[in-house]
Amino acid sequence: MVLDSTSGEYFQLNAGATAVLHMLLDGETPAHAAAVLANEHANVTLEQVKSDINAIQLEFAARGWISQP
User: Fold this and answer.
1) Torsion, CA 27, CA 32, CA 43, CA 17, rounded to 10
2) What is the pLDDT of residue 6?
3) CB-based contacts of 19: which residues, under 8 Å, 6+ apart?
4) What is the structure's pLDDT at 52?
5) Residues forming a β-bridge with 10
6) For the whole model, what pTM was predicted?
7) pLDDT, tens only, 4-22
8) Count of CB atoms within 10 A of residue 23's CB?
9) Angle, to 10 degrees, between the axis of helix 15-25 and the axis of helix 46-62?
10) pLDDT of residue 69
11) What per-residue confidence (pLDDT) applies to 48?
């Protein structure tokens, strides 16, 4: 669960999105986050994870949770 301190709204993130948010906030690169998640989930390709992380980054940046990718 994430609280947007600007709007006061709470957001429920799935486990993957939560992991990505934590990694990005800890200074990891999107490529590192993609490699970690692809390694943990054998049923998805690295390219699919990269694409998903790109979309997640844009959403997080739009909400002001991270800097623009």
Assistant:
1) 10
2) 82
3) 33, 36, 37
4) 93
5) 3
6) 0.79
7) 888 888 989 999 899 998 9
8) 18
9) 70
10) 67
11) 95
- DSSP class per residue in 47-62: HHHHHHHHHHHHHHHH
Residues of the chain short of pLDDT 70, as ranges, are: 69
- The one-letter code for the residue type at 22 is H
Give CA 64 to chain center in angstroms. Answer: 13
Taking CB atoms within 8 Å and a gap of at least 24, the contacts of 52-58 are 52/16, 53/20, 54/30, 56/17, 56/20, 56/21, 57/20, 57/24, 57/30
What burial class does residue 49 get, using C-beta atoms within 10 Å of its C-beta: 0-12 exposed, 13-18 middle, 19+ buried?
A: buried
Nearest to 40 by CA among 18, 7, 67, 8: 18
